[in-house]
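seq as requested:
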Amino acid sequence: MTISILRRTLTTAAATGGAAALMLAAAGGAAAHVGVTPDKTDANSYALLTFGIPHGCDESGTTKVAITLPAELNDAQPTVNPNWTVEKVTEQLPEPKKLADGSSITKRTSQIVYTAKEPLPHDLRDALVLSVKLPDAAGSTLHFPTLQTCESGQTDWSQIAKDGEDPHSLEAPAPSITVTAAEGGSHGTEGAAHSTQEGAGETGQAAAVTDSGAEARSWAGLAAGAGGLILGGAALLRSGARRKATDSAATR
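struct tokens:
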């Protein structure tokens, strides 16, 4: 019976391992191109877009990544990555563009260019993060054509699926996100976004205070426990002494 149970256990483990291997293989295939993962997609909100940089061009290390911003975006704030230098490329607009607050701009950031301080080996990945203000256009898809330059060769991730075409069938699809309807708590202004960050900092401080209080209570509990052990030991010693004295008296 024990052998039968062991056999079933090994069979289940093998099946689970095989399923995990298939999942990892599928994930590896899906991660073979430059992709973008947003932390949110709410219309008219600030979002962090993480671009995953995969293997190089035909096993050649990546030296530069140029991300083109869609026309719907006016700017992007790159997050510092110690492995890369970064610059913004601006373009002159054919005519002034009026913003929601009533102001106008004549230039916009058209591209963010990351240059590797050392070539990114083809068997390693890195992540480049941009902060952007999403447009108030729920349902629209934003494409970010990305040119990956390597020590030898380039890969232009810029293909956009046509109507009715499956994006997964493209050889070098452009990273893209789809803007969704705004949630009730979305922040439409930079000030509100900053307030959220400050609130997060205050929450972190409150958590730190709570942790400190919990730590203090833990030490107090340990001290109380130690005191209890000492008192208990003393009581046992006194009890033993009384018992010894009683036995001695009875002997006499």
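DSSP finds two helices and eleven strands in the chain.
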